[in-house]
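Predict fold of ATP-binding cassette domain-containing protein; 212 aa.
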Amino acid sequence: MLVVDRLTFAYRDQATPYQFSFDAKPGEITAISGPSGSGKSTLLDLLAGFLSPVSGTIATNGTNIVRLPPEQRPVSLLLQTESLFEHLTAARNVALGLSPKTPRTETKVAVDAALNEVGLSGFGARLAAGLSGGQKQRVALARTLLRARPVLLLDEPFSALDDGTRGQVRSLVVRLTSFHCWHTILVSHHIDDINAVAHRHYRLDNQKLALV
Ligand SMILES: Nc1ncnc2c1ncn2[C@@H]1O[C@H](COP(=O)(O)OP(=O)(O)OP(=O)(O)O)[C@@H](O)[C@H]1O
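Predicted 3D structure, encoded as tokens:
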């Protein structure tokens, strides 16, 4: 279980601070919606550790991670686009999810398995620059698989995709979340994406989250 409790933060000169409280269950997708500028990216940055709150806790399975630096948090972040190094192959991009000390054979086995799991067997040697938007999101998800971090933050991950691809990537996220018991937090403006995949939906308004 991911439990965020009174996580409080304000930018300089901000009159009313944000105060975020919400729960997310393993194996489920928790959606966060809200108007532009309401603070959705701010919340993701706090969860990822790129911003530091003035008070409050973020607990994963009972352990407060709020003072951990980003690289030590059990958290992966997947953005709308630009998640990959375009000049590297799909396999090299996926391998970035592993420690550089991982032996070469072990890396190859793990990368092949991850590409297979996201439906991209045989795409390892392709340059990221030559992949479609949906394939790039799959490669980014394969890298997330190797990171094996139980909290996945998604910031509008389907927005740049056409309708057919969007449905496929949405289904993949649901399947991976369920199978790997991730706590997936989906920030989205798109109510159809939220309705299609989310188990819970919070709306962010006036610096606070409310269950929809
Ligand atoms: N570094 C910063 N310093 C000061 N204010 C900031 C900073 N970053 C964001 N803000 C402000 O904080 C508010 C929330 O921004 P945030 O990007 O979290 O909103 P959002 O809900 O993600 O918006 P959108 O849906 O448009 O991406 C906005 O008013 C924004 O201008």
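The pocket of adenosine-5'-triphosphate is lined by residues 11, 34, 36-42 (CB under 6 Å).
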